[in-house]
């Protein structure tokens, strides 16, 4: 394993064939996985064998639609008071309170694809209900299966205070209603590598995960040249490094990007965590790391 030149801005890990081959920054530090937790949640649903196509009670949408952001639901991130409360370090609203606030948003026709954290919160509850296990229990089973020792579902401010960034000490992880996993960069990369290479999902399950809606081309300030979304995965192309399958995430003080790159000479998985909330910050560093460190077997 190689230790890359230390960067004060980034903490990263490269995995090939299920093995850590390079780390950067603090390999032992804990970081919030933010929306990469969505990818893990979708993998849990597939492994649990829950019915993705059964409509939710008193609803017209299915779990599959929630996990692919095609349920046409609004998002609590549209609420100005959500951002104000997070910035003030307040305790997260209860689920029912959050839901009432979201549903009180002025009605408008939602597009066929609409990114919705509220939808993922519903998905989490549905998976827990159908499987009879909590997300924390599912996560522990995954960690045990893969031999991961640091990743956990953060459910209290005290637990979240273990995160590397100092701002974490005044953030309530329950603001991430679908669940916020915390772990090292290596375990994020190992998790995505296991999802993409058959150690967690069957080939059919991974095909289901990577069946995508096309969303367009380049995004300003980010490395994407083609954008798609599947079942809990951002899946597209990042210029000269080819296809990328995984997820980016951000919170009020940090961002991350965790992706598998199947088109490289040796398929490679990279996880990057950066200070600052812009996802492109971490995504661009992934592309830099691959071009400088991981292009050759």
From TrEMBL:
Coiled coil: none annotated. Signal peptide: none annotated. Residues 12-278 form the Beta-lactamase-related domain. SUPFAM superfamilies: beta-lactamase/transpeptidase-like. It holds the Pfam family Beta-lactamase. Transmembrane segments: none annotated. InterPro entries: AmpC-like, Beta-lactam-related, Beta-lactam/transpept-like. This is Beta-lactamase.
